[in-house]
């Protein structure tokens, strides 16, 4: 079964103009009607680092979760953020960005990879105690623009370390859109075969015309968890200056359905979400 993770947090976080809290909540409430597996709805990070997400707790208080099928995921960058997120029983998943690039780890969380791995261990332990699930994102998982060491073998070393910590979900992230279908297929195939007890996801960024082939490469590799954002909005504000958009959810859906995959989404509500996205991101 395919799991689609819709990421309004990722779509919104780099927008300089603050989006009204009520508008954020209305948009996420509409997304909850669609039937996505998970909504990556906000983050508990420093408001100085990501000002757009400073109202995550307020947004959460405005969500209508009655009968919602979707689970909620919040991004955290340190133990303090994880502890803050633990106060909310509505949150199912905590997402942590661990990078295979030392430069990007410093830029993204102001910590070294070694420090970040210690943080992962602490957050994983917190999640086990509090009944939540940690999703670790391996950012720069398909290469980086900084000249840092990279290879599929390096990614495998990180997965091995995360496996030893008990992490059950790892989303390999193409933070700057450099992965081609061949690399996506080979990298995911290798990890899925080597660690069958781990749920692997793909958080890919892409130029619009390359989305379909990247999705198909991931599905062929055995990946069943994909992140996206309506209309491809967003990107990581801590990444390379030339941002590449998120995978457009509507293109992923079209591609998967053309290939005969059942997604169990409410198409009427999805259409309404697309209309609302135009208002939220193009006020």
Notes on the structure:
By secondary structure, this protein is α/β, with parallel strands linked by helices. The chain has one domain (3-281): Aldolase class I (TIM Barrel). Helices cover 42% and strands 17% of the residues. It contains 11 helices and 8 strands. The chain has helices at residues 8-12, 21-32, 56-61, 79-86, 102-109, 113-130, 152-164, 181-194, 211-221, 249-258, 267-281; strands spanning 3-6, 38-44, 71-76, 93-99, 133-139, 169-174, 199-204, 225-228. It is globular, with a radius of gyration of 17 Å.
Order of helices and strands: EHHEHEHEHHEHEHEHEHH
Q: What name is given to the CATH topology? A: TIM Barrel
Going by CATH, the architecture would be: Alpha-Beta Barrel
pLDDT averaged over residues: 94
Relevant terms:
about 280 residues, alpha/beta, TIM Barrel, eight-stranded parallel sheet, 11 helices, 8 strands, about 40% helix, lyase, hydroxymethylglutaryl-CoA lyase activity, Aldolase_TIM, metal ion binding, Hydroxymethylglutaryl-CoA lyase
In short:
The protein is of the alpha/beta class and 283 residues long.
Produce the secondary structure layout.
Layout: E1 3-6, H1 8-12, H2 21-32, E2 38-44, H3 56-61, E3 71-76, H4 79-86, E4 93-99, H5 102-109, H6 113-130, E5 133-139, H7 152-164, E6 169-174, H8 181-194, E7 199-204, H9 211-221, E8 225-228, H10 249-258, H11 267-281
Parallel strand pairs: 1-2, 1-8, 2-3, 3-4, 4-5, 5-6, 6-7
């Amino acid at each position: 079964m395919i799991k689609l993770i819709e990421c309004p947090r990722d779509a919104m976080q780099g927008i300089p103009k603050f989006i009204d809290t009520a508008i954020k909540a209305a948009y996420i409430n509409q997304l909850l009607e669609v039937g996505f597996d998970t909504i990556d709805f906000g983050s508990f990070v420093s408001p100085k680092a990501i000002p757009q997400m400073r109202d995550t707790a307020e947004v959460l208080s405005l969500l209508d979760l009655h009968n919602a099928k979707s689970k909620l995921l919040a991004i955290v960058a340190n133990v303090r953020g994880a502890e803050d997120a633990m106060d909310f029983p509505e949150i199912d998943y905590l997402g942590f960005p661990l990078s295979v690039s030392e430069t990007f780890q410093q830029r993204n969380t102001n910590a070294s990879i070694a420090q970040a791995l210690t943080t992962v261990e602490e957050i994983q332990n917190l999640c086990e105690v509090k009944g939540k699930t940690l999703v670790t994102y391996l950012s720069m998982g398909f290469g980086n623009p900084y000249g840092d060491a990279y290879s599929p073998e390096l990614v495998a070393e990180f997965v091995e370390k995360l496996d030893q910590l008990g992490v059950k979900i790892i989303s390999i992230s193409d933070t700057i859109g450099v992965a081609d279908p061949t690399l996506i297929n080979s990298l995911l195939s290798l990890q899925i075969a080597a660690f069958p007890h781990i749920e692997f996801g793909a958080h890919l960024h892409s130029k619009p015309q390359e989305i379909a082939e990247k999705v198909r490469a991931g599905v062929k590799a055995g990946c069943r968890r994909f992140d996206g954002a309506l209309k491809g909005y967003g990107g990581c504000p801590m990444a390379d200056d030339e941002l590449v958009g998120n995978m457009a959810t509507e293109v992923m859906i079209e591609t998967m359905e053309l290939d005969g995959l059942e997604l169990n989404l409410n198409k009427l509500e999805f259409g309404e979400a697309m209309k609302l996205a135009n208002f939220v991101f193009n006020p």
